[in-house]
Specification:
Blueprint: E1 2-4, H1 12-16, H2 18-21, H3 30-43, E2 49-51, H4 59-66, H5 89-96, E3 102-104, E4 110-112, H6 130-137, H7 141-149, H8 151-158, H9 168-190, H10 192-208, H11 218-224, H12 236-258, E5 266-267, H13 281-298, E6 315-316, E7 323-326, E8 330-334, H14 345-349, H15 352-367, H16 372-378, H17 388-401
Parallel strand pairs: 6-8
Antiparallel strand pairs: 1-2, 3-4, 5-7, 7-8
Length: 404
């Protein structure tokens, strides 16, 4: 602190009015000027004029500096911004904390935030698509972003929607959500595990009345909207919907558990092994009658001749192997019995009657519970009165296909 003592050379008017003559050179020094005037007023009666150094920190300022990290103390003040109007403290603060007007989208588009004031989303010179430039010039800034970053979508959308009413955020979130639902959520729900999961989640939410965030549909909500139904209090309608969904789901699963397992059709030669050629309907009918008579002659019960799921006849014209069976249901001979089999010379040289007996014996063994490998061993010694040539053919089949 500097002390100035008036002497004989000091004008009386200056000394007498010292308390009123000290003023700040700028608004930033007003606090120091006030302090100086008050001090001067107190000391004027004592014959001394006390002048406080306006650049020295006050105790309050010193305490504030000490509260800052060491690397942030005693920094020089920021340079004042030039403005046509004097900047007040409130306007300067608002300019420094102005919220962002847009956020970057997945295709580089500028999506308006909730604080968007309606101005341009980027300088017009940054657009390089003619339509985007035209839309920006007429003030349709969201439509301009679409035209700049989504060429095909622009043609489909902006020709049907008024560009002035176009909502870019709704469009971007919409296509993102649709992709996730179509590629992830729907396939998951279509699987048995996914369907059971949904039923379980609906049951829990119907009981508790609160969202769990576990529904598969939360995947798109979390990725696109950054929110799920976790902790959400369900309305009465939502709770009833969850309960109804759960009830239908449990009923469907119950019916599925009670339904018999689908029958598995066995075959002497694997499905699709033989490339068959169709025969006329008349020939197929005659062959069916002959095979049915042969099966009856070999002792096959009439109710086991043919498979209901495959036409119910002794001859299955649509089959692409040599024969088939469903355990406990029936057996048939497929159209492949008429065709050669690559690499099996004995089969290719055998007449149809020999082939048919061999097929019937093999399918009958599987019909009675044998596996394919077991039927290869059992069929040559079948109790059915098949032709000797057919037994020899079955032995040759065992030689070719019976080795592990």
């Amino acid at each position: 602190m500097d002390k100035v003592t008036p002497d004989n050379n000091t004008p009386a008017s200056w000394a007498g009015n010292a308390g009123a003559s000290c003023s700040a050179d700028s608004a930033d020094q007003s606090e120091f000027a006030n302090a100086f005037n008050q001090e001067a007023q107190k000391s004027s009666d004592a014959g001394q004029l006390v002048c406080t150094d306006p650049t020295a920190p006050t105790p309050r300022e010193e305490a504030m500096q000490q509260s800052l990290p060491e690397n942030e103390r005693y920094l020089p003040p920021p340079s004042p911004q030039k403005s046509s109007k004097p900047a007040t403290s409130s306007s300067a603060s608002s300019s420094q904390t102005a919220p962002p007007q847009w956020e970057l989208g997945p295709r580089g588009e500028h999506i308006p935030t909730n604080d968007w004031t309606g101005g341009p989303l980027r300088p017009i010179q940054d657009y390089d698509k003619p339509w985007a430039i035209a839309l920006a010039k007429q003030g349709d800034y969201e439509a301009a972003e679409l035209a700049q970053n989504y060429l095909c979508a622009s043609c489909h959308i902006l020709t049907k929607v008024d560009p002035h009413d176009f909502n870019l955020r709704g469009y971007v979130k919409g296509w993102q959500r649709n992709y996730i639902q179509g590629m992830v959520e729907v396939p998951l729900k279509a699987t048995p595990i996914g369907a059971a999961w949904e039923v379980g989640v609906s049951t829990g939410q119907a009981i508790t009345g609160e969202g769990s965030g576990l529904h598969i549909s939360n995947i798109s909500s979390a990725l696109v909207d950054d929110q799920t139904d976790l902790g959400k209090k369900l309305t009465t309608g939502e709770r009833l919907w969850e309960g109804g969904t759960a009830a239908v789901g449990w009923a469907t699963m119950g019916l599925g558990l009670r339904a018999p397992a689908p029958a598995v059709r066995g075959a002497m030669i694997g499905e699709g092994y033989i490339a068959t050629r169709p025969i006329s309907a008349g020939s197929a009918a005659r062959l069916n009658g002959a095979l049915a008579n042969r099966m009856q002659a070999l002792g096959i019960p009439e109710e086991n001749i043919g498979i209901p799921q495959y036409g119910g006849q002794a001859y299955h014209a649509g089959g692409n192997t040599v024969g088939g069976n469903i355990q406990g249901v029936g057996i048939n001979v497929d159209s492949g019995v008429l065709q050669p089999i690559e690499g099996w010379e004995a089969w290719n040289n055998a007449p149809l009657s020999v082939r048919a007996d061999a097929v019937i014996a093999h399918e009958w063994a599987e019909f009675n519970g044998a596996t394919h490998a077991e039927a290869l061993q059992l069929a040559p010694n079948t109790s059915l009165p098949i032709r000797p040539e057919s037994r020899a053919l079955l032995l040759d089949m065992l030689r070719l296909y019976g080795q592990p």
